[in-house]
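Team,

Forwarding the record for the chain on the shared tracking sheet. I've put the sequence and predicted structure together so nobody has to dig through attachments.
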Amino acid sequence: MADLKNSTNDQLFAGTVQHTLDDNHRVTVPARWRFEGLNELFAIPDPRQPFLILLPSSELQKMINDLETNQDIDPLERRQFARQLFSRATPCPLDRQGRLVLPYEACSSLGFSNEVLLAGGGMRIEAWNPKNWFDNQLKEENTFADTADRIGL
């Protein structure tokens, strides 16, 4: 597989890793997920499930651009969504050792204690409590299998 981590235009986050969360709420991002120019991710609590969405600024900007050009969404709803999105987004710096500082409040509310599971989500990373991740894997297995059949995987 080609190395897809070298620029913000061709980044790809794939796979899962479980890492220790230290006392400063830092978790190590796998080296294969780090690319030049990535020095922070934005943490946004998922509105429907118990995990954090971690987005590079380029993906957050793309989301807002898509929102602003989507004529199917009322202008008032677009403003409300943007307000809620940005008010919930927390910048998380990535240090030189590849450690990402997760927001304390999110770690507490999601039950992140000693371990965090990072799951690649294509253009984003998801941070999960490991138990919730494995429970969710079981719950989504049939949907994954059915969709895999439909797309020929």
